[in-house]
Amino acid sequence: MTNNDVLRSLRYSLNINNQSMIDIFALTDILVTKQQVIDWLVKEEEPGYQVISDVMMASFLNGLIISRRGKKDGVIPPPETKLNHNIILRKLKIAFDLKDDDILALLAKSEFRLGKHELSAFFRRPDHKHYRECHDQVLRYFLRGLQLTHRP
Asked: I need a labelling partner for 131 at 20 to 30 A (CA). Which of 34, 48, 55, 117 fits?
């Protein structure tokens, strides 16, 4: 699952238009154009497709956190230079103010079962012995659960 897939899914789930996406980026002091947003949202096989970088995706997720939860003491966190599914899942957990039970409920809503211990392994430090990498399937079902909740 690419950053573009995640961006498309969030845009659809939250019913965000192009200008709102630009505004979300602006919350992290990143200026993007309408054409950039359009190019990130088209499918891979369509003309004009552009890959959204990890830095830009992290900036969008940080902006989503700010738009949904408010700015934290005026500090804008710097975007990560390298994203993985664990970081994306953590940022979405923060943006939507989700507890572990909420995430498990979203996964169950999209007909995917996961244990609480398995879920907590995704949020551990990579050097922790119980750390587990979040695979495409888990992130896809999580995003599907968000979609079913926010745009049934």
From this structure: 55
